Automatic annotation (TrEMBL):
Disulfide bonds join C106-C110. This is SCO1/SenC. The lineage of its organism: Bacteria, Pseudomonadati, Spirochaetota, Spirochaetia, Leptospirales. CDD domains: SCO (cd02968). PROSITE patterns: THIOREDOXIN_2 (PS51352). Residues 68-233 form the Thioredoxin domain. Cu cation binds at C106, C110, H196. Belongs to the SCO1/2 family.
Amino acid sequence: MKNIRYSGIFIKYVILIFCFFSCGWFGREDGEKDFNLTFFATPQKDRLPYFRGSDLEVFWMEGDQQLPTNVRKVDPFTFQNQLGQSIDESHFKGKITIVSFFFAKCHGLCPNIIRNLKFVQSEITKRKDIQIVSYSVTPDLDNPLELKKFAEEKGIYSQYWNLLTGDREKVFDLARNTFQADTNTTNKNPKKDFVHSEQIFLIGPDLHFRGIYNGNRGESIKTMLEDIKLLMRELPTNKQQTPSKI
């Protein structure tokens, strides 16, 4: 019995050692790049990352690297804001944009996220190159008139913050395929059922995704505001400056 027990222990050690070598746990120093990985990049404190692919994989650019073709950016759209004005993706160009999803009758996540974004609005009132864009996920109910009423009730100012509505399928397509903001996993009716996430997205002046945050958490909002300071360096008017505050 003793020999059988020791034989079992020996076999376990052999298997563990095999796993260590096959997984590459030996033979590579801590922090050394695994060149089997594609587009490996080291996190950088003074630069924001980009995102790519369907799973929003995060990566940092290094040196003169070219952005990959699957880098995530805002897809074309045309919707109306609370003033009935036509807004499309060109309104993002040359600006820093904070994107969220909401609906006017929401009593769950939305009120706290709106409060947090109102704080952001108060921080960007002196800037013309930073804006907030919130897409309604109940566009059939949230027409421009309803959105205007909602904006007035919540103290949302159109010069800093656009509330957008439009064709349901086009809104859902943008939310799901560009931002992956739908948390509805039941798929009961993908054309009607939509459960928006609490994520908010930071979009750079070239329409690329540069940050994703929890809009329901104050600490995450503060992190985003700090990241905006970094991103401001990429604005055409700030490339030679290091903004210390918004």
